[in-house]
Amino acid sequence: MACRSVPAGDRALVQIVDAALADVTLRSGAWLVCRPGCTSCCIGPFPINQLDAARLRLGLADLEKREPEPPITAIGQRQAQLIADHLAGDVHPEMTHERTPNDSGRGYAITRLYCSPMLRTLQTARPISQALNLQPEVWVDIHEHGGLFHGNPRNGNPVVNFPGMTRQEYMDTFPGYRLPPALTEQGWWFNGYEEMSSCNERALRVAQTLHEWAETKPDERIAIISHGTFADLLIKALFKQDFESPLGYYHYNTAITRIDWTHRGYLVLRYLNRTQHLPVDLITK
C-alpha cells in the first residue's frame, strides 16, 4: 500500500536524525569532506521509499503555500533564550584582559543590539535584549535575501509582494524597539522577490557602515541578529571576497560568529558558527 501521508511523529524523528548528524559533523571536524553547498558526490539517482516520497510531497506542498513572514518555532524560542543567557553569563570564550574600561564586567560586554525587521529576528532579539538590558534597534538592510513575498520564484509561480508589518503593529508587538523611518504605516518591503545581486549590494552597504563605525566608535561591541544567507554575504563583503566564489559561511540557528576590527586597521575572524550555548538536540539549520 502506498504511503500517501507522513505519519505522526515523523517530524520529531527527522529532528532527532538532524541532531545526530550535527553531532557527527562537529565531532568529525576536518575529516568530514562534505560541506553545505558541495555537489561533488551528491548528484545522481538515489532510491527512495514510500515514506521518502510522502515527505517530498509534503515539502513541495509547503513550498506552494510559502508563508512570507514565518515566526520562530518552539525550538527557536528555546534557542533564543539559551543564547540570551549565554551572552549575559560568565561562561564565554572572551578573556578578562580583552575588556575595556566601559565594560559592564559580565558576558560579552555587548553595547548595541541590532536585528532585521523580519518577525523571527525580532522575536529572537527580545530575550537577548532583556538579558543584556539593551534596546533592540531595527536595521532594515540586514534582512534575509528575497525579502517578503507570497509564491515561489524557483518553480515559476507568480510572486506577490508582502509589505510586512505596519509601524503601529511593530510598536504594539515589540514595544521599546528602536524603529527606523523606513518602517511605515504601509509596511517596509515593496520590491517583490529580491534577486541575489540586490542582496549583494545590501551586504556591501552594511559592511561599509560597520567599517565606518569601527573608526568612529572603536569601543562599541555590536551584536547583529540576521539570517543565514545574508550573514554569509556580509562576511564575504567585510573580507572583500568574491560573491561568486565557491565559498560559503554556514550558520546554525542562533550560532555566533565574532569579527574584530583591530587598532591596526585589519579584520580578525575570531570564530565562526559557534554553538557552545546549545545542546546537541537544539542545533538546527
Features:
single chain, globular, alpha/beta, Rossmann fold, 2 domains, two-stranded antiparallel ribbon, 36% helix, 285 residues, 3-stranded parallel beta sheet
Overall description:
The two termini are 33 Å apart. This protein has 285 residues and is of the alpha/beta class. It has 2 domains: 10-64, no CATH class; 74-282, Rossmann fold, CATH 3.40.50. It contains 7 helices and 7 strands; from the N terminus they run H-H-H-E-H-E-E-E-H-H-E-H-E-E. It has helices at 10-28, 50-64, 74-88, 119-132, 167-173, 196-216, 228-238; strands spanning 112-115, 136-138, 149-150, 160-161, 222-225, 256-261, 267-274. The mean pLDDT is 86. It is globular, with a radius of gyration of 20 Å. 36% of the residues lie in helices and 10% in strands.
At CATH's second level, what is the architecture of the largest domain?
3-Layer(aba) Sandwich
Largest sheet: 3 strands, parallel
| CATH homologous group name of the largest domain | Phosphoglycerate mutase-like
From N to C, what is the helix and strand string?
Answer: HHHEHEEEHHEHEE
Helix content: 25-40%
List low-pLDDT spans: none
Q: Given this structure, which CATH class of the largest domain is correct? A: Alpha Beta
- Count helical runs: 7
Q: Over the alpha carbons, how many angstroms does the gyration radius reach?
A: 20 Å
